[in-house]
Design goal:
By secondary structure, the protein is of the alpha/beta class. Among the domains are: 89 residues, Alpha-Beta Plaits (2-Layer Sandwich); 110 residues, no CATH class; 169 residues, DHBP synthase, CATH 3.90.870; 200 residues, 2-Layer Sandwich (Nucleotidyltransferase, domain 5). 34% of the residues lie in helices and 20% in strands. A hairpin with an 8-residue loop joins strand 7 and strand 8. Helix 12 packs across helix 17 and helix 21 crosses helix 31.
Length: 856
């Protein structure tokens, strides 16, 4: 008995739905320990009885040999009297709920793993017929190697689809391997999580898979602790699980389908297909199911049709990225004239042929989160002729790799090697995720629907990431990342809900000191997005069983934000207003766990309600999250005609940055091509009617963009600023380092507490009139702005003895400016800290609101 030891181990982190209990079972069995492991509403509880040395070995392995998707935040160890437990073996016990509150971290949805891809395609995964084995190359039969994303394309070229296996052959293969070509194959290391969970703890009855009872074979795998599908809650196969089917709207004579699709003409749709019985789908006809549905869907994409595909967190619209007619049709149907589309390619090798990707970018693309990665597009790729339709006026392309078995099956069936892959919605609306809504809302957008039978519990868009300074910079945080914790706060007893802002909304909730950020919601000016905002809040509060009493709500100070006004509908013990730009800075420090660190905070964006009721957006603060932030410098105020509405027309914003004489003079200069938006804005400024003070760097970018030739209406947020950035990047490629160092003409003067833009803008006007190219002006402006900000921060650093600079706000998505600013600050001995876990735009705002509220 002296050598025996009994312990209770509490594990917190991402430890449910990721194969953690089977991992613990195998580990305990390895060291011949008795006891149990179970899920509860806090995390995972383990009890061990056995020799002290073996328990020590178990604990050492527990920390370092985790399943791929698991992550431990905290281990709490408590000794138990040996005689108080009578364990004779180790078992996985039933889940249980502790108290009324929940602090379990929910796993994000995970990309399909290598082993499941092997199940999906591999010849010798099970004892397959010879005809199947002969259809695959030797390389493919050996599996995918360590990097699925890198090797899939050349291997999949020899798949059963590519060799035209008959339906009877595929059926015979499925008899020996129930996961063969099964579009929902998954295990504890991959597949849906957040998108299917109804409530915690994470067990099958509390997921959308509860409607699909397991067959005997799946039950055997589910109950076998040594099987990687042990307690994999979404486990299913061809025999018992959901499947996919292909449908089309009933055809009219002038339908794009009846005119253009060889697929549907060949299938004799009207003769061979039957209307769907579901009332929501009664206007659609089922064409095919299972493998045949996927085969025909791939053919439809090659025919130039637009396909609505049900995925993990919602529907996508897919089409051939090299089909000009289809690209134009999608832009017209989606009312998305200029905003870039993402492109899905089958593997990393294909991505490298289309874009310049460093190691960080490649790692992000192939990661288990599988975000859209923004990278410089190659101008000599086979997709280059279509880039003006994919990413207009943009040097970048957004790429993503397949992340579900269905995506891989489509490529295997011969789908185009580069597919536009975009959220299925009208521009500005939330992504469709319910089948009935998809059929109702997408009839005018999609030609065909590839529908999966597994219900989606909540909508989740694809995440978007770029690389700045060789590190990831989150642009949109959603699938693959949400609802993972983004920060840890010291006040564990508080439940705080932060509502974010009205643009790029995401909300945050603190539970037990962990801050959980929701998936991307969208822009709340759209009523359907506001409905999604309400649903997301209800969902989060319900998931974590937050009591109505004791909830603190943090909101933006803008008096007209719909998100802020929503606070009045929530039963809360306290509501706390947080200034917009202070929240941006706090978000950086919260995610880096520097809550008490004294910093200079640089907040730059398009808009935000200031302490003086002006529109802020170019601010420097001094302080910390725990002590608060004092505004110590800002961009000098301009007059903004029409307020936030000026963001739609850069020339309207420009009018407020010019004196009356200069503005009127520019009207007669043909090089600028200004119209009534500019002249009317000048009159508003002259008469001081509906003009607002603004210190926004975002609007300053708009003003310079207007002077450089961007005079049309903005089609999406920050379009003019993005256009200016890409003009500058194009110019930078043509210049040497010595040439670049001479571009210092547009410096902003740092005077007391303001940065004065007047000389810089007058110099831009002068250069434009003298024939300097817009791209050269754009580059000079970026360099000068970075240098001017660094000078101001350097002087403030000397005055306040602060060396750490935290920068946030939508302008910090500008990778060129961020790189220039980092270089300038580094020369002055200052360190720049940026958002990495949450977006610097308003998508990260709720984290900062919550952090500041926790110290209020």
């Amino acid at each position: 008995m002296a050598n025996l030891r009994c312990v209770n181990i509490r594990v917190k982190g991402i430890v449910q739905g990721v194969g953690f209990r089977p991992f613990v079972y195998v580990l305990a069995t390895k060291y011949k320990l008795a006891g149990l492991v179970l899920n509860d509403t806090i995390g995972v509880e383990i009890e061990l009885l056995g020799p002290a040395h073996e328990i020590d070995c178990f604990l050492a392995d527990l920390k370092v040999k985790l399943p791929p998707a698991a992550r431990i935040d905290e281990i709490i160890l408590q000794e138990i009297e040996v005689g108080s437990r009578d364990y004779s073996s180790f078992e996985i016990a039933e889940s249980r709920q502790l108290g009324s509150n929940i602090a379990t971290r929910i796993s994000p949805d995970l990309a399909v793993c290598r082993d499941c891809l092997d199940d999906l395609f591999k010849a010798d995964r099970y004892l397959a017929p010879d005809s199947y084995a002969e259809s695959f190359s030797d390389m493919f039969a050996e599996g995918f190697g360590d990097n699925i994303a890198e090797s899939f394309c050349e291997n999949i070229a020899e798949s059963g689809f590519a060799h035209g296996l008959s339906n009877s052959n595929i059926r015979s293969l499925a008899e020996s391997n129930a996961y063969f070509h099964y579009p929902y194959v998954n295990c504890t290391n991959c597949g849906p999580r957040f998108s299917i969970i109804k409530e915690l703890p994470y067990d099958r009855p509390f997921t959308t898979m509860s409607a699909f009872p397991m067959c005997a074979a799946c039950s055997t795998s589910y109950e076998n602790p040594l099987d990687r599908r042990f307690h994999a809650q979404p486990v299913a196969c061809r025999q018992c699980g959901p499947n996919y089917f292909l449908t089309a709207p009933k055809l009219s004579q002038d339908s794009a389908l009846s005119q253009d699709s060889k697929l549907l003409q060949a299938s004799k749709l009207s003769q061979d297909s039957e209307p769907l019985q579901d009332s929501a789908l009664s206007n659609n006809i089922r064409i095919a199911t299972g493998d045949e549905a996927i085969r025909r869907a791939a053919q439809a994409l090659n025919d130039g049709l637009i396909l609505a595909i049900k995925g993990i967190g919602g529907y996508h619209l897919a089409l051939d990225a090299s089909n000009e007619k289809a690209l134009l049709a999608l832009r017209q149907r989606k009312y998305r004239r200029a905003k870039p589309f993402a492109v899905m390619v089958p593997d990393l090798a294909s991505a490298i042929r289309l874009a310049t990707l460093d190691d960080e970018g490649q790692g992000l693309l192939a990661s288990v989160a599988r975000p859209i990665v923004i990278a410089p597009a190659k101008t000599d790729s086979r997709l280059a002729p279509f880039l003006p339709l994919i990413s207009p006026d943009n040097l970048d392309i957004g790429l993503l790799l397949p992340y579900t078995p269905l995506h891989y099956l489509l490529f295997a069936a011969g789908a185009p090697a580069a597919m536009v892959f975009t959220s299925a919605n009208i521009s500005g609306e939330p992504i469709a995720y319910l089948d009935e809504d998809a059929y109702a809302d997408l009839q005018g957008l999609a030609d065909l629907f590839l529908i999966g039978e597994r219900p989606i519990q909540r909508r989740i868009d694809d995440s978007v990431v770029s690389v700045v300074g060789k590190e990831p910079l989150m642009v949109r945080r959603s699938r693959g990342y949400a609802p993972d914790a983004v920060a840890r706060l010291p006040r564990e007893q508080d439940f705080i809900l932060a509502l974010g802002g009205d643009l790029k909304n995401a909300v945050s909730l603190s539970v037990g000191g962990h801050v959980f950020m929701s998936q991307y919601v969208g822009d709340l000016e759209h009523s359907s997005c506001f409905d999604a905002f309400e649903e997301t809040i209800t969902d989060l509060l319900s998931m974590y069983k937050v009591p109505k009493s004791g909830l603190v709500v943090a909101y933006d100070l803008h008096p007209n934000y719909r998100s802020s006004l929503y606070r009045d509908t929530i039963e809360a013990s306290r509501v706390i207003g947080i200034q917009h730009h202070r929240a941006h800075i706090a978000s950086v420090l919260a995610e880096h766990n520097k809550l008490d660190e004294l910093v200079l905070g640089l907040a730059m964006d398009g808009t935000g309600f200031g302490d003086d009721q002006a529109i802020w957006g170019g601010e420097i603060f001094l302080g910390s999250v725990s002590s608060g932030f004092e505004r110590v410098c800002h961009l000098d105020y301009a007059l903004l005609p029409g307020g936030d509405a000026a963001a739609r027309f850069p020339q309207q914003a420009l009018a407020g940055y010019l004196d009356e004489k200069t503005g009127n003079a520019l009207l007669s200069e043909p090089i600028f091509q200004f119209d009534e938006h500019f002249s009317n804005a000048l009159k508003m400024v002259e008469k001081n009617v509906r003009v607002f003070k603004s210190s926004s760097v975002g609007r300053l970018f708009d003003a310079v963009a207007a002077l450089c030739g961007f005079v049309g209406e903005v089609q999406f947020e920050a379009q003019a600023a993005i256009w200016l950035e890409h003009q500058a990047r194009g110019q930078l490629k043509k210049m040497s380092e010595s040439d670049r160092s001479k571009l210092d003409r547009y410096r902003l003067n740092f005077e007391g507490e303001t940065l004065d833009f007047k000389f810089a803008l007058s110099s831009v006007v002068e250069d434009r009139l003298n024939g300097v190219k817009p791209a050269a002006i754009a580059l000079s402006f970026h360099l000068a702005l970075a240098g001017s900000l660094a000078d101001a921060l350097d002087q403030l650093s000397e005055a306040h003895q602060v060396k750490l600079i935290a920068a946030s706000g939508g302008v910090m998505q500008n990778s060129l400016l961020a790189d220039f600013l980092r270089e300038e600050l580094s020369r002055r001995g200052l360190t720049l800290l940026l958002n990495r876990v949450v977006p610097p735009n308003d998508g990260g705002l709720s984290l900062g609101q919550l952090a500041l509220a926790s110290f209020s």
